[in-house]
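Hi, here's the filled form for the chain we discussed.

Project: internal
Contact: R.S.
Residues: 178
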Amino acid sequence: MKSLICKLGCVIAIFILFSACDKKVEEHTSKKSIVLSNGTHVAIEKTSTETTSIGILTKHNYGTIHTFKYRLHLKKNNVIWDLGTGEPKNLLICKDNLYIHYLNENSHRIEVKDTVTDSIQSSYITKVDNMYQKHIDERYFFKLLGEDYWLDVTSEEYSKLKKSCPEFEVPNDGELSI
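And the returned structure, exactly as it came back:
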């Protein structure tokens, strides 16, 4: 019995040793600065990360994961948009408000009814969606106190405002599209 346990332990140890991975992370940041036709200065920063899993003993590449993150900085009012995985597409600059249109990968739950077992099974799919946000600025005393944040708005609200406010395209790498 002891020899069987020892053999089983050795097999598990060898399996763990061969399946252990080392991660190699490469991060690249690109910065671009533009001036919109209305004189607004926008700094765009994109950070791309490549994470590769490589077997410690086998040196086998088990896969690479690519992620990216955008950060916009509108210098005039010191406004920062930093959603993470969203890719900015357009800025809508109105007299008193600022809006952004971006694409984002979202996880959606789908349910399927199995007619044989009469049960409901669910799974998740990833889908790229159009997203819209409005900048809320509650800062005061030379914008040192208070807070500013981004609030989700509907596509209808954004489309309605497009008729009365200028819309500007945000340069991006086009990694997300619908």
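Let me know if anything looks off before we file it.
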